[in-house]
Design brief:
By secondary structure, this protein is mostly helical. The chain contains six helices and no strands.
Length: about 140
């Protein structure tokens, strides 16, 4: 494993995750997000999120994707990364969203689960593609 390339790919993935999440969830879907959650769940939201902690969270996802791609899947292309990233994101989002629906009163509308999974698929494709492209950069086949 090329550790430097792994770290760079993780960082690239984190940056894409951060900005794609901000655009999709923070801007485009902010009203839908608020309506999908119960008032009690919305009351838990901070007025100002901690962006440093959010970026560290995104970095953990970047590290996860890069590790899977580099260590196990040997993904070194945009399309390979986008495909795998979509699948990983859909599975994670579905697992987490369905747990929330099953065990909490946080989600008002089950439609939100499908919206969130679709948005996660888009973000996962973008992140996975960026990481795959970064891992394959400069590679001589």
């Amino acid at each position: 494993m090329n550790f430097t390339k792994f770290l760079i790919a993780s960082l690239v993935g984190a940056i894409v995750f951060f900005f794609a999440g901000w655009l999709i969830y923070g801007i485009l879907l902010s009203d839908i997000m608020a309506k999908a959650m119960t008032p009690e769940a919305n009351a838990l939201n901070k007025t100002e999120p901690n962006l440093v902690v959010m970026f560290v969270s995104n970095l953990m996802y970047g590290l996860l994707y890069a590790y899977i791609f580099e260590r196990w899947a040997k993904i070194t292309t945009f399309m390979g990364g986008a495909t795998a990233g979509t699948l990983i994101a859909v599975l994670i989002a579905a697992a987490i969203d369905l747990q929330f629906v099953a065990m909490t009163n946080m989600i008002n509308d089950i439609t939100f689960v499908f919206i969130d999974i679709a948005c996660s698929a888009v973000i996962g494709a973008m992140v996975g593609g960026a990481i795959g492209l970064t891992l394959g950069y400069g590679r001589k086949d």
